[in-house]
Structures are given as C-alpha cells and as structure tokens.
Predict the 3D structure of the following.
Amino acid sequence: MKNAVLLAACFLFLAVTVSAQNKAEYQNWMQTIRAAGRSLNENLEAKSGDAAAADAKKLQEVFSQVLAFWAKNNISDAMKFAMDAQSGFQEVAELASAGKFDEATEAVGKARTCGGCHSAHRERAEDGSYVMKY
Ligand code: HEC
C-alpha cells in the first residue's frame, strides 16, 4: 500500500516535469506545422509536386512526434486527431508526388484536424497565452 502511494507520487511528479519540459518543444512542433502547412498550400497552388510532397512529409513527421506525445499521456481523442493528420498528410505526399494536385488539395482538407484538437485540448489563459488542456 505504501509502495503504491509512493509509485503514484512518482508518476505524478514525472507527468508534471515532462509536461513543463515539453511545452516549449510542443509549441515548436506546432509552429513548424503551421509554417509547413502554409508552404504546402502555396506549393500545391503552384503545382510544384516535389516541394509539396516534401512539405507534406515534414507535416507527417512532426505529427508523429505529436502523436507520441499524446500517446505517452494516453489521451486517446488527441491521439486520433494526430493519427488522422499523420496518415492524411502521408496521402497528400503521395498524391502530390504523383502530380495529382486536385486530389492532394482535397486530402489536405481531411488531414487538417487542427481545429478539432485545438478546441478539445487548447485553452486560452487569462493573459492571452495558450495552455494545454488534458
Ligand atoms: C493532437 C492535437 C493537435 C492537433 C492535431 C493540432 N494541434 Fe496545434 N496545438 C495543440 C495544442 C494542445 C496547442 C497548445 C500548446 C501550448 O500552448 O502549450 C496547440 C498550439 C498550436 C499553435 C500555437 C503554438 C504556439 O507557439 O503557442 C499553432 C500555430 C498550432 N497549434 C497550429 C496547428 C495547425 C496548423 C494544425 C493542423 C495542421 C494543428 N496545430 C494541429 C494541439 C494540436
């Protein structure tokens, strides 16, 4: 019993330190995602297949880190948003490499799970900054 309490305390401590440490890294991922998403849209519009595919691959990569983050915290709906984004951008990359720009643009719509996850897991603090909500 005493061990169980100690163990629980350790987990709590771990969870808190990990999230404090990861906050900056997480925000970095999101900024990378925003930049790559903009670049992807421009490259799809310009019909630059290779460049668009590279952007979509970058998004896929970063979303796999986002997925690992939520998986570590075992938050299943956020994992689903991240997974859908990851597989969605993989599809975008394949379509863009194949020069299928209309289909790729449509696939971007499906891959953009941003809003769903933000409304479930992001909250504005009183000072106007964002905080993560579990
Ligand atoms: C799995 C959940 C999830 C998905 C999917 C997601 N986000 Fe986020 N995003 C968050 C959370 C949580 C925060 C708040 C992080 C914080 O401030 O601690 C955030 C914050 C951000 C920020 C602000 C970063 C900063 O510097 O404070 C941007 C920009 C952003 N997201 C862009 C996007 C875009 C664009 C997409 C879709 C292509 C996306 N996100 C998809 C969860 C997600």
